[in-house]
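Lab meeting minutes (informal)
Scribe: AK
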Amino acid sequence: MNEIAQSLSTFDAWVFHLVNGGLSNDFFDVAMPYLTRVRHWRIPLGLLWLYLFFYAGQRGRIVALLMIPAIAVSDVGGSRVIKHLVERDRPCETFGDVHLLVGCARSSSLPSIHALNIFTAATLISAFYGPWIRLLAFSIALMVGFSRVYVGVHYPLDVLAGAALGAVWGIIVAGTYKRLRSEEPASVLAPRTEHAA
């Protein structure tokens, strides 16, 4: 088991260096830090939320309202619980040759909270919308996940773990809502049949 874990860690580090150093170029050096910073997403996501809630009908309002507790739980659960259980050093703390494009946070590297939150949102949106919206949502999620490795603050495994957790949590939230919505208390709602004497 230790050999498997060591091999996985070695491969994870190799892929990190491939993305962070091997794919380095001037365009990505500008685009990836922009994509990876939360503050650059606040206005677009805020406008999207307002559009969903006020202009996208009942389905949009459902998604907007579900998004709040879903991301709140994924963010707090990932940063306050999982990170403290794992306590993995970030690559920018471990290696001296990292092509670091943003600040190196001191919190645990696994999972990537960026990936966890955005895959929660993408999965939730995909549960209510068609293939083109799903493609757009997951394309954005993948770009953000890739940016976390490129800027030097996460290993690929951190992003994959965050993406997997986010996808599972999004499925749970959407599935729970749909199941509760579809359940009808037959004993209360079903009309009573009276038999004539």
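Next up, CB showed the second protein from the same session:
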Amino acid sequence: MMRNRLRAAILSGAAITLGMVSLGLVGAPQVVAQAFSSHDTNAPVDYAADRIELQDRQNRVVLSGNVDVKQAELRLRAARTVVDFTNGGSMQIQRITATGGVTVTRNDEVATGDVGIYDFNRRIITMVGDASLKRGGGDTLHGNRFVVDLNSGVSSAEGRVTGTFSVPKKQN
């Protein structure tokens, strides 16, 4: 059941969202917020996991069990990730698809979802399935899909969107 749900979320949500959001064609209700601004997307990527499987013919690496991926101050944690790469003399990451309790953090910002996709070429992170963003000041944002554009620092949530805005504290 969970595997089918994740597969459906990836197929029906992430692929469509990546294309439609970048083209500005999304017709669902959408909320835009600033998140993960000024991230160094050119920094090297470090990883740790309980198990690694190199699938050289498919140009991918599967990391499973307590996966922890770091790039500069950005951190992605999940139960499992598939890392797609090109192999032109050295491995160059194209995309990371993470499943199972996905959490992406940077400083005081935390994004969560059932599935997370980090597209390195487009510099976009997409969270699908019970997606949320929480910021240190108390701001929260929840939706079915959540897209973070690391180039601009602009994030958008789709579906039934809910959240909380923090307000300045009244000073006596």
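CB comment: The longest helix spans residues 2-23.
No objections, moving on.
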